[in-house]
Design a protein that fits this description.
single chain, 474 residues, alpha+beta, 17 helices
């Protein structure tokens, strides 16, 4: 018999939020083989070891996260549910390590079939053919009847925040080549929609809360760039959380409704001065800097009342303010170890100073990709961190722990324990965001509707039954 309800009462704490990040990785195989190899073949080789233990290329891991091959042969990693930004950053960086650990086995398997080459994995958003793949942010919010207007109030912030948390990149060719804030911005076609690939909106409105549907809804933001630098992740997710806190507390955000959102998001991305004028519906014309300053000022005005002035909140506000000042001054050095677009631009400009390369030089494109490459031995990021050129927010020990273990304070702890028990007991199991099941055992599916609950006696009993009795699956 299926257990349909989470033990009462549900944990409803307005001071806590569940966060999640989903990252699609670009996949490239560099080789000299005569036979053309497809992306699907490379992805299959990469995930061979996953399929061996998980019997699928779509699995949940002992750290509570999800790992799978998405449409277009993109490896995708979705973090476990996190209720702190520190856990989220550690889980996100753990995802880079987890997919990177698959590379050696994938290359070996291809060699065994006679194909020599190197697998590259890019935590970016655009490939050389102009295809875009995403980094999705998830924020659990309380269910409300006015979700469309609630989400719509955040669109001006999302359109203009790229001047702070975009990943940076070169767009255009020849004399029209230029450095932009966000490679993703040119590939978004709608403000809000229930689709993800056909129209590619900024906010996906599909109602899939992965939680108790009477209480919660998931804010699914798909307009942002993938982030390499940990402070960029902190600002990207942290600033959004602060604005959501204000809205949930009944505080109105500044009225900055944009007249032509799709035009604005592209024009903002292409103007590194932050001064591209954006037409608002009320007739005003403001720059992205001015619009972000209004959002920041609204948050700062609620510090100590709606928002507690924690050290983490102070760090978010400081980077938010310093980022705007750097863009306005045209001097990016104050944030060039913290914000991805500024870090990468520094690398590119120093390379150009040494070589005289133009922005559309193929070597610039390779440098751009190398910044995002998480495959062992290929990417620039570890060396830049080691040299102090990129600041971090979490320690190496926290990342390594997140590779193996789920966050301790959310539902992910239950899922992670269950998955680990299934692996160790050689039992055939299935798991998703809200369900745990031992295959073949009638009556042993458990629903976990409360993402804040990290302890559940039903899961303890299910794990005990797995490890003490039952048919093992080899």
């Amino acid at each position: 018999m299926t257990v349909n309800e989470t033990p009462a009462p549900l944990i409803v704490d307005p001071s806590r939020r569940i966060f999640g990040l989903e990252t699609e990785f670009g996949l490239h195989f560099r080789h000299g083989a005569v036979r053309k190899i497809t992306a699907e073949e490379v992805a299959g080789a990469l995930f061979h070891s996953v399929v061996q233990w998980g019997r699928s290329s779509n699995v949940f891991l002992p750290n509570g996260a999800r790992l799978y091959i998405d449409v277009g042969a993109h490896p995708e990693y979705a973090t476990a549910e996190c209720d702190t930004l520190t856990d989220l950053i550690a889980q996100d960086k753990a995802g880079e390590r987890i997919v990177a650990d698959l590379v050696a086995g994938g290359e070996r398997r291809l060699r065994e079939s006679g194909i020599e080459g190197e697998i590259h994995l890019y935590k970016n958003n655009v490939d050389s053919a102009g295809n875009s793949y995403g980094c999705h942010e998830n924020y659990l919010v309380r269910r409300r009847p006015d979700f469309a207007s609630f989400a719509g109030a955040l669109l001006p912030f999302l359109i203009t925040r790229q001047i702070l948390v975009g990943s940076g990149g070169v767009t255009g060719t020849g004399t029209s080549a230029r450095y932009c804030f966000s490679p993703r911005a040119d590939h978004v076609w709608e403000a809000m929609s229930s689709a993800t690939t056909r129209s590619r909106p900024m906010i996906n409105t599909r109602d899939e809360p992965h939680a108790h549907a009477d209480l919660y809804r998931r804010m699914h933001v798909i307009v942002g760039d993938s982030s390499m630098a940990e402070p960029t992740i902190l600002l990207k997710v942290g600033s959004m959380d602060l604005l959501i806190r204000m809205l949930e507390a009944g505080q109105a955000l500044p009225d900055l409704t944009i007249a032509r959102p799709m035009q604005a998001i592209r024009e903002v991305s292409h103007d590194l001065t932050g001064c591209a004028l954006v037409d608002l519906e009320d007739g005003r014309r403001l720059t992205p800097i001015q619009m972000q300053e209004e959002c920041l000022a609204a948050v700062e005005a609620r510090i100590g009342t709606v928002i507690e002035a924690t050290p983490e909140v102070r760090r978010i506000l400081s980077l938010w303010r310093r980022g705007l000042e750097a863009v306005q001054a045209g001097d990016h050095t104050p944030v060039e170890t913290e914000l991805d677009w500024a870090i990468k631009r520094r690398l590119i400009e120093r390379f150009r100073e040494r070589t005289g390369a133009s922005l559309d030089d193929p070597r610039i494109a390779r440098l751009d990709l190398a910044y995002h490459d998480v495959a062992p031995g290929h990417g620039l990021y570890p060396a830049l961190v080691a040299q102090g050129l990129i600041r971090t927010e979490v320690g190496e020990d926290q990342i390594l722990r997140a590779v193996d273990d789920p966050p301790e304070t959310t539902r992910a702890r239950l899922r992670g324990r269950f998955v680990r028990a299934g692996i160790e007991s050689h039992r055939d199991i299935t798991a998703d965001w809200v369900r745990l099941k031992v295959v073949g055992d009638e009556g042993k599916t458990i629903l976990l509707k409360d993402p804040f609950r990290a302890d559940d006696g039903r899961v303890d009993d299910l794990i005990a039954s797995m490890t003490s009795s039952g048919t093992q699956v080899d």
